[in-house]
Amino acid sequence: MDTADQLQPVRLDPVGADQHAENERLRANGPATLVELPGGVVVWAITHHDTLQELLADPRVGKDAKHWNLYREGRLPEGWPLMTFITVPGMTTSDGADHRRLRGLVSQALTPRRIAELAPAIEQRVARLLDGVAGLEGDFDLRTHFAYPLPMQVIGELLGLAEEQQGLLHELSNTLVSSSATPGAGAAAARNLAGLLAQVAAAKRAEPANDLTTALIAAREEQDRLSEAELIGILMQLVVAGHETTLNLICNAVRALLANPDQLALVLDGTVSWSAVVEETLRYDGPVGQFPMRYALEDIQVGDVLIRRGEAMLASYAAAGRDDRHYEDPNRFDLTRENNRHLALGHGPHFCIGSSLARLEAETALRELFARHPGLRLADDADPRPIASFVSNSVSTLLVRTS
């Protein structure tokens, strides 16, 4: 049985230039492949669907960086671009009772009833954005003018963020999810984002409002259940996850539909639902590529390798979505696929807490976009280059035209 010190790691492309081709090579190496991240950091990538599903719910796997030997021993490079992912206090970096406490506080504001109540407001926002798109001449970037502002405005309203703050929050968020940022850029973005959110929290303390930020502050100050660091960490995670993934999901769905006109015809004539579009996109081209980081709490055998206690793992969501051991013809975008259950939104205790909201936003956006523009197509000179990150899985621009 092979261990990390007996294997030569595969260098993961920090800019994610062709994630699906890279994932195919990783899957061929087995369910767990040793990979090298920026800065020479070596971890395991879990790329097979069934193995990833098992490990996401395995009590022998943790999310707190104190379990990672490299972090605990101070052996990570200074300015490492992914450091914020593993150190920001909150739901994505906690285990057990702490995780249940933090998740419980946030879930009080994201109940199914609350999400359903947001539907009319989301439809109105989509309509306004499409009105704006109608005023654009020629080719336009769907990502900038439609896919980005919708989830940013929705999470901004939930958290009570001023509209003028949202552009900077998005810019800082982009840097945080980049695996190709220059040394120190991620840490600087994290500091700036934390500082901005601390100002938001201070404003809500002075003037409480009917939003999630105020509710979290109340949980901290009245129930003494939330530390200041946890408050800022949760707000940071909600800002980043609350719009980046939905933005990528909308773009990836539009790309897949325009590249597969036979599938687009099925949804436009009502043969399949917009929900089917969202679920198949999540499987086929999910918004997250490689998500850091999980840690072995004890030695874990995975296939022919042994992941030792204290070693780290990437959740390779995009790779699992095209695993031919689990899906038939996985590289085909097929809206009639019977087995399209996926892991794109996680699994187990850390399943995406905002999954219902993301699905609602994406379904509404796609339905209304193609209702107004059934002839939407890629621009003639469209060059949909990927986001320079193996964490995000989407394109940096999506040039389209409506006629």
UniProtKB/TrEMBL annotation:
Belongs to the cytochrome P450 family. The keyword Metal-binding applies. One of its GO terms (molecular function) is monooxygenase activity. Keywords: Heme, Iron, Metal-binding, Monooxygenase, Oxidoreductase. The lineage of its organism: Bacteria, Bacillati, Actinomycetota, Actinomycetes, Kitasatosporales. This is Cytochrome P450. It comes from the Bacteria.
